[in-house]
Amino acid sequence: MRLFMRRRGEAGPGLDASRTLADLVRTTLALEEAATVSVSEISCGDPACGGAETVVLVMRPGRRTEAAKVLMPMAQVTPEALLAALRPLMPGEAGVSTGLSQEG
After folding, report:
1. In this structure, which of 3, 23, 42, 72 has its CB flanked by the most CB atoms within 10 Å?
2. How confident is the model at residue 101 (pLDDT cuts 50, 70, 90)?
3. Which of 92, 41, 93 is nearest to 69 (CA)?
4. 9-45, pLDDT tens digit by residue?
5. What is the pTM of this model?
6. H-run or E-run covering 3
7. Is 81 left (phi over 0), alpha (psi -120 to 50) or beta?
């Protein structure tokens, strides 16, 4: 399994959260070994995400890179929020998800 990190060589809770989420992405999407998952936390200007959002990139051989994002810091992402964000990447779905409900 290949996993890209935003901050190389940095250990700690962020790295553990990234690995945990990447493993959950692989399991949820039943990814083949050749697929690459990248989980990063970036600054977010939207007040709803509390200053940071989590971005998941799924790179499968022969396919375009797919993205999902959760409008919360990586350490706060729950399996349920990640699953909601990944739904559009599952077979039969398309698009980028925010991981938030469609209320409003």
Report:
1. 72
2. very low
3. 41
4. 555 566 788 999 999 999 999 999 999 999 999 998 8
5. 0.74
6. strand 2-4
7. alpha
Instruction: Using alpha carbons, list the distances in angstroms from residue 31 to 40, 80, 85.
Output: 19, 19, 16
Q: H or E stretch including 67?
A: strand 66-70
Q: For residues 41 and 6, is the Cβ–Cβ distance under 8 A? A: yes
**Helices and strands of the chain, counted as H and E runs:** 2, 4
Q: Is 85 exposed, middle or buried (0-12, 13-18, 19+ CB in 10 A)?
A: buried
Tokens 């925010």 correspond to: 98
| 50: its two tokens | 């509390």
